[in-house]
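Appendix B, example 12.
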Amino acid sequence: MTQVLSKRTVAASTAYPPRILQFGTGNFLRAFIGPMVQALQAQTDFAGSLVMVKATNSPSRSYETLTAQDGYYHLWTRGVYEGQELDELQLITCASHCVHPYAAFEQFLALASVPELEFVVSNTTEAGIQFEPEDWPAGAPAHHFPGKLTQLLYARFQYFQGDPARGWVMLPCELIEANGQALRECVLQYATHWQLGKAFQEWINSANIFCDTLVDRIVPGFPQEEAAEAYERLGFVDQQLVVAEPYLLWAIEAPMEVRQRLPLDQIGMNVQFTERLAEYRTLKVRLLNGAHTAMVPVGLRTGFVAVGEFAEAATGRRFLEELLLGEIQPSLPHKQKEVQAYVASVLDRFHNPFIQHRLADIALNSIAKFRTRLWPSLRYHLERDGQAPPRLLQAFVALLLLYRGDVIALRDEAAHLEYFASVWTTFAGQERVDQLLGYTDGWGVNLRQYQRFCEQVGRALERIQ
């Protein structure tokens, strides 16, 4: 009979002091950062653990089950890597504990006084790194991640009396351009808005390091259909079991001292400290992530459930090839051979038979993802030709239709969901098109300025409806 996973049912790991603060308890960070910290503990003199912090107050079983399992979980790595099939279950025990800011704010704030803490990693999606001018939340966490981070940094600044040696190294994993610098600017905005003082702002700039990073790994999450098989192999019931592909990349722009203090490039896991981050980022975000974001509304509206299913179908494969090679490739500054090689690797990863990456899961925060992943490619064509090519148009129109909310339960910023619900129920015809394309808060630009594109979208919506 299988046991429930916890420190009581497996041999306790070495007790290391917490050195890494992880904002987010979701699938990606647990499949990405967890094994790295475990490898650091085993292969280097790092001698530190991580603390997992729940990033939002949205209902989720992840925090409760992680807490019940004492932060322990298994990573199931499956797929073909360098010609070899990999099927590995690894117990991850590197987390010291989990903290819920909304349920235990004082415990959350107390993290600021832990002297060993040095590093902050986060993955709050593209929508997570933003500034919201809220009042100082006395006795409660700020709404957005940068606000919570500012609260912690200010508490640390006060506790250690502005000691320049007590700053942190920020390593955000959100897929936005210059994510470290964007996070720094948000923190400074909060510091100014909350009137936390010039000395604190100077300490943010001088004592803390905000690194730009790029992450790459496909993590479909919990294997619903195969959980029983995994439990049988493990001998444990693990409700936080997470599946990932073998491929992994973390590219980091950071000063040499970060590389020395956090030797991630010494654990054999394709972590690269680089000065070419922009090149890595453009290829990955525009091609791999762009393909994900485009196929979500198209696939869901045509009955597909997972990435592999979509990529295996003739219509899906044709859609991806025409999108990536015919429409996104021309917008990239890279050499054609380099793009084609990367596209080939992306399609191979999509065809991984062991990975069932659900389209509904990728749909989280699709509006922000569109702006980051697909809008640069679409803008290239709109500014050159005044209109969208077929596959980018198809993806955009499908996204508009998805946000009617009648295909899946949408998960996005409340303001986005309310806006689209209002437009779809209040307007019709050309007026509806104008409202949808004029949503500057969503798209980051007023798309009505592209007249031919507006006409394309109008015709497509009329034809579909």
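Residues 113 and 159 are 6 Å apart (CA to CA). DSSP finds 19 helices and 14 strands in the chain.
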